[in-house]
Amino acid sequence: VTDSRTIRVGALTRVEGEGALHVELRNGVPERVELNIYEPPRFFEAFLRGRAHTEPPDLTARICGICPVAYQISACNAIEDACGVTLDPELAALRRLLYCGEWIHSHALHIYMLHAPDFLAEPDIIAVARNHRAAVERGLALKKAGNRLMELIGGRSIHPINVRLGGFYSVPAKADLKPMAEQLRRALDDALATVAWVAGFDFPDLTTDHELLALTADRYAIEDGQIIRSAGKPFPINEFSEHVVETQVPHSTALHATLDGGRHLTGPLARYSLNSAQLTGVAREAATAAGLGEQCRNPFRSIVVRAVETVYAVEESLRIIDAYEPPARAFIDVPARPGVGHGVSEAPRGLLYHRYEIDDDGLIKAAVIVPPTAQNQAAIEDDLTRVVVAGVDLDDAALTAMCERAIRNYDPCISCSTHFLTLTVDRR
Amino acid sequence: MPSLAVWKFASCDGCQLTLLDCEDELLTLAEQVQIATFVEASSAIVAGPYDLSLVEGSITTPSDENRIREIREQSTVLVAIGACATAGGIQALRNFADVAEFASVVYARPDYISTLATSTPASAHVKVDYELRGCPIDRGQLLDTLAALLVGRKPRLPAATVCTECKRAGVTCVTVAEGIACLGPVTHAGCGALCPRHHRGCYGCFGPTATPNMPALIPLLHRDGLSGPQVDQVFDTFNVTQFQAASDSERTPR
Known about the structure:
heterodimer, A: alpha+beta, three-stranded mixed sheet, 14 helices, globular, B: alpha/beta, five-stranded parallel sheet
């Protein structure tokens, strides 16, 4: 007798963008595990051709409403690389400060609104607020602090208007940052309380062996850095496309990326496991108190890592604000120069790579964008397989819920990958 | 309690995120409306009909052409939120190009991709009751619209220009004072003149006003350093379809 089961989730909830899940089991063994991304394609890499070299930061921001700064900064890094421009240290610090705002906002959004409901068996943050009102109010205040920081430096939290090649259109006065520092000091308490809160959740066991890929820098890498990985040899950023290769699968409008032909993981777990020694101060203490070792390989515990990274981002913002003196100039000129540039940064969800080729007229000749969720799809499908094997005795509803949780662990950004997921589980 | 549904089509999620960005108001709002369907924020999905639907994103696939009609049938009031839903968004750049060629640039197997040749706003398919402009929408306008519809008044959505907002705010004109190219005179109000406040010319996130004076603005843009093709490109962004319609006679031939 053949025992067949199919699990389908037509529209994944509490993820950014449109995706579905399809799992088929035969005699309890998963035969097909697919994350289907049906987010309609928007063709950014096609319409960027022929645009002025100054435009990708504003245009690619529109790929994702949750992490527009990541797109702006990876684009700036790539085009500045092509044009041979290096940012003044003061402007680089301001860029990092803006990016910290995005980390705080995006991590707080995922922790409280998208992920925590899974651990509390509630459908959403509104339901969570019925029994955990103080926690939800704390999360909203934390998220708001991130948004205000983005508005202060970027002019707007969704698709900031103040970012340009070489720096900013305008920079804040020292006095403008004072009230922000006050809000961030309260946010630091909220972020620490968040770590303690999520560390108390009940985490399913799951240990993964995906290769880890992240950036590393003098400080915990955010706005720029060099490639670091857990197993293979690191490579310079201009060789990214030779190692991280995107392929297309019929079940998804997202491209799937592999690292030297194998599955890999980027994002909070990769960053933390590769760079945890760089966490300092209260972020380090909070990680230890939450029971995180030097590495974290259980994707269900990514919520704890995000909370620790939020503490770090708040601390780092306060440090940058404390040292802030208004830069002598708001931006450096970035005149177009024909050639190729590569840019990376650590989006809240992981490493985001941009490559631009600029022609003799200063126009974009070719663009390549590799978002974190495209890179993580193979890792997500591998986790799903493990979760299905471990949960084969669960009924369909419980197994489906577990599969959805395995996906949310990654905070997948489907609009980014356009290329994402409907869960269908076929049990045959 | 009135029911609210939030829908997504081709988009970046930024406009629906604006609702979640109402940190101070979200819990109060949830006491006033039943958030019946909001896939990005909740696993609980309540079937229609709905009193109010917020629609984000543009229509770019055959199945989405059907979905927007079904949503309209289930909704008493339908509000399109953001430039994708009101103008087709930046992905409407395909409307002026060969979509098959676009797909071949991004995808090795374009035949796996199901997409329409055009990206169109909700209003091209169904009756839309209100439109919130912007890429992204303004949080204040969203809250005012929700509050208005809850108490039964019309939302306050001023049809003035960014230029008007900017003057009212007392911001020094970046064009007059510094010769910075600015689309404020032809761009729909709503952002609060964010860019000029940051020493940047408006770049048109809210699309054109109803009667944009393009013949008056375009020579100024040339004066302030934009070439013919650059003038076209500055309008060819998030509201490309509407700016194209507004400036057809003024454009450099392609």
